[in-house]
Each structure stands twice: as C-alpha cells, then as structure tokens.
Amino acid sequence: MSDFVNKLQQMLRGEVARPPTPPIGETVGFSLSEVGEGRAVFVLTARMDRHANPMGTLHGGVLCDVADAAMGTAYATLLDAGESFTTLELKVNFLRPVWDATLTATGRVVQRGKTVGLTECDVTDEKGRLIARASSTCLTLRGEHAKDR
Q1: Phi and psi of 85, rounded to 5°?
Q2: I need a labelling partner for 148 at 20 to 30 A (CA). Which of 3, 49, 112, 126 fits?
Q3: Please, what is the Cα angle at 56 between 50 and 59, to 5 degrees?
Q4: Which CATH number fits domain 3-145: 3.40.50.450, 2.60.120.10, 3.40.50.280, 3.10.129.10?
Q5: Cβ contact 65:125 at 8 Å
Q6: Which of 99, 97, 105, 115 is nearest to 135 (CA)?
Q7: pTM of the predicted protein model
Q8: In which element (H, E) is residue 16 found?
C-alpha cells in the first residue's frame, strides 16, 4: 500500500489529524480538505500563470488531475488491508471555462463491488457553478497484484 494510502487509513482511524496530500497534489497545487468513508474533497486555487493551456484558460489536464485524485482517494477509503487499486477508465466532461478561481473537487464512490468500482466527481468553482464532471472505473487489486502499489 502506498505511503499516501497508509496515511489516509491512519487518518480515518483517528491516529493522525492532518489529511495527507498525494505527491501529484504538491506538483499541481491541490490539497485534500475533507475525507470520509467513500468520499474525498480536494481544493485547488487555479492560477493562469501556473495552470493555463495555450488558449489562456485552465488546462483540462489540471481538472482531470484534481478530479482523479478526489475519486481515487474516495475509493481508497474503502480498501481493506492488503488491497490496492488501479484506474481502468477515466472520463471528464468539461462544462465551462476557468481562469483564476478556487475549485473544489468532490469525489464519491457510487459502487464498490468485489473487484470493480465506479466513482464520480463534481468540480465546482467558488460560486458553486459546475465546471466539470468526471467518472472513473476502478479495479481492486489483491495479493501479488497489490504488492508495492
């Protein structure tokens, strides 16, 4: 199990108070603000001097990263000891352009089966407007497949 997931599990058990930030969050600039069973919320302050695409709006990959982190973290809260997961499919609908804004990505587990799960994420701005909606299919890994992941 990754260091991030270990820290996340410790937080859910009440052993640590501060939510962890995955390494990609350090790179892109988002952080975990809330987490619970099957749910995770990340916040990103989007800045065009750091996150712009060639057209001058927020790069879609940044939205994809923060949504993927929210969905993956939500899914990780439901993993049992010795389990890990990987993403099988990821889809994002971009609904409105973004410039400088504070974005909230709320990920939730829709269904967690024995092997396959479905997650969703809404990314909203500080005015509550829906910026993007994402979904992801996750594959739960066990045994040798989960080792070192």
Answers
A1: -155, 165
A2: 112
A3: 60
A4: 3.10.129.10
A5: no
A6: 105
A7: 0.91
A8: none
